[in-house]
Amino acid sequence: MLQAENNRIFPKTVYLAFGSNQGTQLAGSAQIIRSAYTLLSNRTLTACVFSPFYQTPAFPAGNGPDYVNSVVKAETLLSPQELLAELHRVETNLGRIRETRWGSRIIDIDLLDYQGCILPSLDVYKTWAEMPLELQRTQWPDDLILPHPRIHERGFVLVPLRAVAPSWIHPVSTKTIDGLIGALDAQELSEIVQI
Length: 195
Fold this sequence. Notes:
This protein has helices at residues 26-43, 80-93, 122-129, 133-136, 155-164, 177-182, 186-190, and strands spanning 4-5, 8-9, 12-20, 46-50, 54-56, 67-76, 108-114, 193-194.
């Protein structure tokens, strides 16, 4: 997967979203995210650029306390699948238990974009990106899908992503990050507060 030239491996640029809403207060959730940063920076990521923290309402609405969200731009030598496995290991190390879809969680780390790759195929990506919300509640993919199929509709991801990648372009739609944010509901955006 990684490009090699004269036996040299080149790192890939990745974007990761972090969220937590099970700290005892917002500061607790922010500290959990910092712990995840540390674990990943020590093992798999380099050249990290961290967004500010943002307080955001739980998704879907009313689904628990507010979240602390952040995005990291980084480089990695891992393949997408290896990186996803490492993200799951860090979540487990920090106490994440996967019980319910979109439930409260101590830590959630999503791989948003991996060097613009579309995985496993454009058709599979479109199936998940266009899936109605009521089906998303009960279904989830078995394989890694890139870019993250919901990124384009989630302000709590796009706003911190713009902080670290103001010229980011969606690999499938080719829309700019400003265009994606501009298409979101103004009320939703007003509830995303930098802390």
